[in-house]
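Issue 218. Parser rejects a valid record. Input:
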Amino acid sequence: MVFTRSDVRLVGLTVLAVLVAAVTYYGNIGGTIAPFVLSAVALALLATLVGHSVEALGDRLGAGATGVVQSALGNLPELFVVLFALKSKLYEVATATIVGSILANVLLVLGIAFLAGGLKHGSQHFEKSAARRISMLLVLAVAALAVPALTAELHTPAAGHERALSVVVSILLLLLFVASLPAALKRSDTSAGDGAAAGTAGAGEDGPTAEGGAAKAAEPAHEGPGWPLWQAFTMLAVAGVGAAFVSDWFVAGLTPAMDSLGISQAFAGLVIVAIAGNAVENVVGIQLAYQNRADYALSVILQSPLQIALMVAPALVLLSPLVGASFTLVLPPLLLVSLLLAVVVTVVVVLDGESNWLEGAALVVLYGIIATAFWWG
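Output the parser choked on:
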């Protein structure tokens, strides 16, 4: 394998964090808080390792394929976390985690990415066609997720058949996900032009800061860690498997930590578990925006909530009986409304193919408001 000294340090630190988390979990060491915190740290380091692998893949696969591959592996912890939560009968945590994962990506992570990239490079531009395609699929997926909840809330004839309806919706969403893959994997030839346009437009609109973005755009294309393709895929797979184990320890420490800190299941699922489970996208997407790779950042960040809505949530409905649970797509009213608002606002922000720091700040503020509303449960 081709490793630099910094790569060796990162891998060593990640292995050490996973081992320490394993010792605290299996050895019942550290009381109620330490196992939870240490497993969260291990997940974050695994996310950083995935970020390096994604950098190595980016220039070879293109923005769309990179986002799909990275999000698929990055969402593995999400899938395992919710399955383990369902096994532990933490239904409120499971439901809130699914919604919280979408909210965290479309508001918090995208907002921080726009904020970081905008403050460093000025206005950033990304491919409009990709933004429209992802936005359209995200709106359709959220609309489909809303149907089972509305049938229950409106007391329609379908009320009482939410499980059967959820299974049908899940199968159709999975078919839509498969149908969307060819377009998502197609490599675009316009990324470089968009990047240059970002620098030029930014210099005209935002002054000195954006001039730095123009200079940055004029530099040669960003190079990743320089890993061979097989090595990048290997590190992605190993990190994904490691995240599955750490997710189990994370959920095991969740209930004692909630009881000790006085945190409700809804807030824990919506904020804490969702952010930890999406640590990969949190780190990678922000890194890419800060490096002025707006197309890659948008693809990585928005592919994750899209896959959660089209693949992870439906998969949980179909797989939940395997862990002795019965998971449906019926969302509580406040979660449903928050999800719809977040997606609509995000679509409005990204459809013009341009982002700036103020839009990022607005997304982060909206996330903070929604999260606060769930503090009390």
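Fixed in the parser; the record now loads. The chain has 16 helices and two strands.
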